[in-house]
Structure formats: C-alpha cells, structure tokens
Write a structure and sequence with these properties.
Blueprint lengths: L3 H12 L5 H12 L2 H7 L2 E3 L6 E3 L2 H9 L6 H13 L1 H4 L9 H6 L8 H11 L6 H16 L7 E6 L2 E6 H15 L12 H7 L5 H11 L3 H20 L10 H6 L3 H8 L2 H20 L3 H13 L1
Helix pairs in contact: 13-16, 15-16
Length: 306
Amino acid sequence: MIDIEKLDNKLYSVKYSFYPKGDKESLWHAIRNNREILKEAIKIKRNKWNNGDTILGINIAVEMLNDYENVFEDIYNELINIIYINRDIARLVPNGGNSLLLLSLTNLNLKLTEDKKAFAVSEAMNKIGTMKYQQKENAYAKMLDNEGITNEEKTIINIDGDNYIVGLKSKKEYFNYLANILSDTQAHGVGAFDIRYYILKNSNWTMEEKQNLIWDFYADSNTYDNYLETWESNVYNELLNYNERNTTITREDLFNKYTYENILVYCKKEIDTKRFWEEIEFCKEMHKLRPEQWELTLSLRKKQLK
C-alpha cells in the first residue's frame, strides 16, 4: 500500500528544494498518472490538532488544482466537490500560498453550480473590507457603546514592545481587528489579488451579479480605487517587461486606445496576447461596473454643465 503522506512530503521536498527541474516534473507526472494515488490523496482526515479537517496529500491536491488540464477529470471534480462543501478544506493554505478554494477559481474553465457560487461568495464576504465585515465592525462598536465602554476611560496597549495610552474602546476594537486578521476566514488571499478579484474575473458570475458584488466586496471607495489601480498597473508592468524591446506604449493608450491587434503585434504570441487582453478587458469592465471616484466626479460635472 502506498504511503500517501510520505509521498506527499517527498513532493513538497522536491518542489521546494534544489532538485533539478526534471526531477520535479518526473515525480509529479508519475503521481498524476496514478489514479490510486490521486484518489487516496484527497481523502479527508482530522488535522493533528483535532480541531478541523484536512486531506491526506495536501501538496498533491495543490498540484492537481494547478495542473487541472492533465489530471483525471473525475478525481479532479471530486476534489472540487470536497473543497466546496467543507470549509476546513476550502480554507487550507498549504506552504503559505493560496487557499484551495482560491486555487480552484484560477481554473477559469471550471463550471460552478449556483450552490458552489454561493459558497465562494460567502467565503469572500468574510474578507476584511467587505460590506458584511463593515457591518460586523459597526455592530461591535455599537455593542461597546451599549455596554458603556468609551474612549474616555484610558488603558495601556503594548504594540511591538512599546506601551501606548489609548481609549478602552479603541483597545477593544484593535484586538477585535487582530482576532479577525488571524482568523481562518481570511485564508483566501490578501490585498488586491484575493478571492474577490478571482470571483470578479470568473465567467460563472454574470455581469449583473458582478454589478452587485463589486460594491459589496469593497465597502471603502478609496480601497477599491487603489485595488483597481493595482490591477491596471500589474498588467501594464507585466506587458512592459514581457520582452526586451523598447516601447513607447503608455498606460493611457493601453486601456483606452490599444486593440487586440496592437497587443498581438507587440507580443507576437497569440496565447500571451489573449492573456494580456483578458486582463485589460477585465479592468475596463470594472471601470464600467464601478467607476473610480474621480470618474464619478467628472461624470457629475459633465451632467451639471449640460
């Protein structure tokens, strides 16, 4: 009988060590072509602390999600089903990378049922910065008010070894924030490229659904504006670094004037052009669904001048 955990550890060791690339590929190819190994690897077990579920071969599962085009479809779908019905499994973050749920969403060809879509959205809504999170924060602040806890009463808080005098309410809100950051509800990525980004990019959700989600996902308009700028900067900088050719391409031209054919001339390769163009189109769509604040202000001024 195959020792899945031992094999899984070997896969991890080969992947994150100085083994030659060929060794890494040959080991994974041997694993992905063995149905018995794959089926055994995604079996659920209790974690070593006995406070949640995990799977026998977590590194194998990660590779299955990354190499979805080359693994057995039925076993891949079985893994997907496990992720979307078991929050413990969905929130697993192997080796400090992305959660299994987020990795599943990188497969843009994966068809999701309405239940799976709802599950992904419910996990995304737990992220710090959503409307749901803001409502919970407001409710917590109101509870403190109802209990008579204010900042008039002073207390000491220690941050990185230094003591600060702060209001009691602020201290409790700070520790509540820390508790949320450390919670496994935050498992699905960080910053601009967390699970919310992958949902907004995903074709399983209609434009009408995204129209609502893009407002619910980002309660603070400044945060949303910064994230949209980050998405644009990422594709722009990646395109500039694509090859060593000098180029006069500007960010404004990229998002306002350039066509698919312009990008193809620059990239030469259809597959890379398609990837860049999808990112450009995504950013354009986000501007339409939720314009940045300066765009809303400009639009309002134009209406006032008419």
